[in-house]
Amino acid sequence: MANLAIITARGGSKRIPRKNIKEFRGKPILSYAIEAAKSSGLFEEVIVSTDDEEIAGVARKYGATVPFMRSAENSDDFAGTADVLVEVLNHPQVASVNFGYACCIYPTACLLDGDQLKKAWDLLKAGDWDTVFPVVKYGYPIQRSLRMDSDSSVAMNFPENGNKRSQDLPPSYHDAGLFYFFHVDRFLSNRKLWTERTAGLVLREMEVQDIDTIEDWEIAEFKYDMKRKSG
């Protein structure tokens, strides 16, 4: 069965205008996700789902296809990732290929590389999982997290852990916000990327960066520069 990469890159971005094609270290940030997918050698096709003609042009320039423009219904601030993926996978031009697996990649995944995708693919196949996505360990145990009230007073969310050493508490993880590699038929049957048969691929903090603010963008540039220096 063939594999498909789907990069979701709509035009609307309020906190960082035109974020998905903003220049990142010399080229549009979208290009990094496209190049990672292509360099992995895992995908017969790399599709960019977008509602924006300029983004479509950038996608094609870097080797992706844009077989159709995303619907208005799935282009607003309330459209979920699953809805966008269903639209792509059910499009006649895509459905006719009968892709067995697909990978949803976010357009600002500038630290992504082909090796990470290969590791996810190997894990997905080895465990017959519905979905595999990268996770990152929290830098400090969330069991000792604090809350702050309006008067600036602080209190523990889990006071029962107040006297426990941080090294004695189990680690917690969060979604790295890079990609989701999934079984197409199972996804289309339940329209969920996270099921009871979902596995996490653990990545290091320096390998990932979710980008929502200018500060996030600057951190991503720092991590990218460090990654290039380390080879």
TrEMBL record:
It comes from the Bacteria. GO terms for molecular function: N-acylneuraminate cytidylyltransferase activity. Its EC number is 2.7.7.81. Pfam families: CTP_transf_3 (PF02348). Keywords: Nucleotidyltransferase, Transferase. PANTHER family: HAD SUPERFAMILY MEMBERS CMAS AND KDSC, N-ACYLNEURAMINATE CYTIDYLYLTRANSFERASE-RELATED. This is Pseudaminic acid cytidylyltransferase.
